[in-house]
Write a structure and sequence with these properties.
Layout lengths: L1 E5 L5 H4 L1 H5 L4 E5 L4 H6 L6 E5 L5 H13 L3 E5 L9 H5 L4 E3 L1 H6 L3 H23 L18
Parallel strand pairs: 1-2, 1-3, 3-4, 4-5
Length: 149
């Protein structure tokens, strides 16, 4: 499973060091400015993490919009504990939030698997909503009532 981390901080790798050694996981690191370009080209089953530590509100809004448009499972890194209301991120479609304490202790493979399972269900629900349209094979009503008894 691919984990793509977008951060301008050199310390982001410390949070994912256990995953770098775990079998079946590959972790790559990119600058936050590359989120749109590299996020779109990431595999459909990748889990994307974006580091929002200390970002100004306009930058948070812009990057959340990018993440939401990718149709990928994503989480937010907040190494500084900058956000009082992480539910904001979940309302925008995030599947994980890594705050200050968890960032320090690091993320393990079991957590990423849970995030992936949760996110997969969410994405399937969204896809089902857009593709489930009722199609009628015959007209809903005729031009007379003779066949109705």
């Amino acid at each position: 499973m691919e984990i793509s981390v977008f951060s301008d901080s050199q310390t982001a790798s410390s949070c994912f060091s256990a995953l770098e050694k775990a079998k079946g996981f590959s972790v790559n690191y990119n600058e936050l400015s590359e989120l749109k370009k590299k996020g779109q080209s990431s595999p459909a089953d990748a889990v994307i993490y974006a580091d929002f530590s200390g970002l100004a509100q306009p930058a948070v809004k812009k990057n959340l919009a990018i993440l939401s448009s990718l149709n990928r499972i994503f989480g937010i890194l907040d190494a500084k504990g900058s956000y009082d209301d992480p539910a904001l991120f979940f309302h925008a479609g995030a599947c994980d939030y890594i705050g200050k304490a968890l960032f320090k202790s690091g993320v393990d493979a079991a957590r990423i698997k849970r995030v992936y399972e949760y996110g997969s269900k969410s994405l399937n629900i969204q896809q089902a909503k857009t593709s489930s349209q009722v199609k009628f094979t015959s007209p809903v009503s005729g031009n007379d009532w003779k066949k109705i008894t």
